[in-house]
């Protein structure tokens, strides 16, 4: 088993808890206002506050925000568990701070350093050599994100970093330019198949730098 540093999805978990706290605070404020301004409502204050929270969650923007973070968290957690199945000698860093954004998973092993960016989307996904399409829309932003994070890691570590874009619950195996785009089940076979090129001492130094960046 690979050694893990950090917890997969930690940043998104914190954001979800903050959202939950805000939504509960909204419900409490509604209940309190009803109690103060309409005390004759009595025991109906709590059901009315609950109804207000339900209506808030039905707002398209709120619903989209909650579901996006929840899907992201579940995706990062699933891929994190899969990466733990790498052989001894590999190390997996979860939720790495890159200054203004986080890398979902950074993997260091005999073949080198890999930045694993996880996405959890519904709908059809098409991988072409010249672009990535999700539900019929071209998503160059996801490709740029993966490369941007790899460049930040290269500046931090002083070595080449290979980005990998992984989609949860899919069977995908393609490339957009030089960016591998894989399904969740195809990630470990891809990593294991890479040629060994990283010396143990160099890997140890890189791991020490990355450990200080785990959130």
Task: Describe this protein's structure.
This is Nuclease. The protein has 215 residues and is of the alpha/beta class. It has one domain (3-211). The protein has helices spanning 10-37, 45-58, 60-83, 140-157, 187-193, 200-211, and strands at 3-5, 91-97, 102-109, 112-119, 125-128, 131-134, 137-138, 161-167, 173-176, 179-183. A seven-stranded mixed β-sheet has the order 1-2-3-4-8-10-9. Helix 1 crosses helix 2 and helix 1 (10-37) runs antiparallel to helix 3 (60-83). It is elongated and about 75 Å long. The relative contact order is 0.15. The model has no long low-confidence stretch (mean pLDDT 92).
Question: In short, what is this structure?
Answer:
InterPro entries: NERD. The protein is of the alpha/beta class. Helix 1 packs across helix 2.
Q: Tags for this entry?
A:
single chain, 215 residues, alpha/beta, seven-stranded mixed sheet, three-stranded antiparallel sheet, 6 helices, 10 strands, 24% strand, elongated, NERD, Nuclease, transmembrane, transmembrane helix, membrane
């Amino acid at each position: 088993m690979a050694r893990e540093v950090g917890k997969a999805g930690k940043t998104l978990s914190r954001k979800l808890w903050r959202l939950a706290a805000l939504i509960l605070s909204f419900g409490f404020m509604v209940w309190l206002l009803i109690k103060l301004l309409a005390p004759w409502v009595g025991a109906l204050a709590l059901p009315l506050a609950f109804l207000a929270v339900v209506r808030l969650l039905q707002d398209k923007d709120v619903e989209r925000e909650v579901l996006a973070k929840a899907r992201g968290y579940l995706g990062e957690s699933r891929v994190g568990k899969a990466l733990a199945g790498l052989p001894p000698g590999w190390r997996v860093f979860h939720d790495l701070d890159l200054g203004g954004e986080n890398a979902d998973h950074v993997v260091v092993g005999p073949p080198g350093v890999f930045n694993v960016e996880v996405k959890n989307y519904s709908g059809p996904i098409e991988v072409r050599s010249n672009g990535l399409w999700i539900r019929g829309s071209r998503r160059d932003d996801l490709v740029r994100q993966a490369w941007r994070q790899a460049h930040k890691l290269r500046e931090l570590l002083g070595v080449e970093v290979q980005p990998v874009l992984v989609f949860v619950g899919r069977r995908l195996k393609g490339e957009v330019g030089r960016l591998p785009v894989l399904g969740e089940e195809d990630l470990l076979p891809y990593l294991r198949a890479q040629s060994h090129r990283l010396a143990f001492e160099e890997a140890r130094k890189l791991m020490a730098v990355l450990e200080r960046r785990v959130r």
